Amino acid sequence: MTEQCRPPEGADDVYSFIKPRVLHYTLNDYRIALGGEGPLAYQWDDKPHRLVYDLIASRMNADAELAAVREENARLREAATKLLESADLVEANRSTTYQARNGKTVHVQSEDGERVDLVHSDCTFGLAMAAIEMRAALNASAGEGLGEN
Q1: Residue 6 lies inside a defined structural domain of this protein
Q2: How many domains does the chain have?
Q3: Distance CA 21, CA 146 (A)
Q4: Do 135 and 148 form a contact (C-beta atoms < 8 A)?
Q5: Rounded to the nearest 10 degrees, what angle do helices 121-142 and 48-93 cross at?
Q6: Which of 15, 18, 41, 71 is the most exposed place for a label (fewest CB within 10 A)?
Q7: In this structure, is residue 12 part of a structural domain?
Q8: Cα–Cα distance for residue pair 130/136, rounded to 1 Å
């Protein structure tokens, strides 16, 4: 390894001194530079290690972005799962009737005559909390304003 390409003393691995970053040229510009063409041809002839480091840094950046996307997907999947489980709990525990004090089974209707479903407050509270968590996960992943009422 030439002195120019040698990593600084104390570097854990050979590429630890390269910081992740995006490419300023297209991948095709890097490819054609090998043949002495394009905007990076001079770089390839003069200091080819810079182009190699650019490509390594780009890969490191892509790996970091992929890890962040996977983490975000896991967070969203967890919030969505909680929301669906809470909705399933509401569905499983809803009732169209209740037992009146006189022992009769009673149906409840709204003013327009539609049936009213009765759900225990624990179920509706769980659903409300899961919806809040889902909104928070959406807001964290895509910026403010998503999922607001």
Answers
A1: no
A2: 1
A3: 29
A4: yes
A5: 160
A6: 71
A7: no
A8: 10
d(CA 78, CA 25): 38
Decide if 33 contacts 51 (C-beta within 8 A).
yes
As a whole number of angstroms, the distance between CA 50 and CA 58 comes to 12
Residue in 135, 134, 133, 137 with CA at minimum distance from that of residue 148: 135
58: domain range?
Answer: 27-142
- Give me the pLDDT at residue 149, please: 46
Are 107 and 97 spatial neighbours (Cβ–Cβ below 8 Å)? yes
| Structural domain contains residue 3 | no
Amino acid (one-letter) located at 104? K
47-77 as b/e, with b when 16 or more CB fall inside 10 Å?
eeeebebbeebbeeeeeeeeeeeeeeeebbe
* C-beta separation of 139 from 145 below 8 A: yes
Whether pLDDT at 38 is above 60: yes
pLDDT band of 10, cuts 50, 70, 90: low
Q: How far apart are CA 44 and CA 54, in angstroms?
A: 12
pLDDT of residue 84: 95
Coil, strand or helix: which one is 20? coil
pTM: 0.60
pLDDT band at 4 (very low <50, low <70, confident <90, very high): low
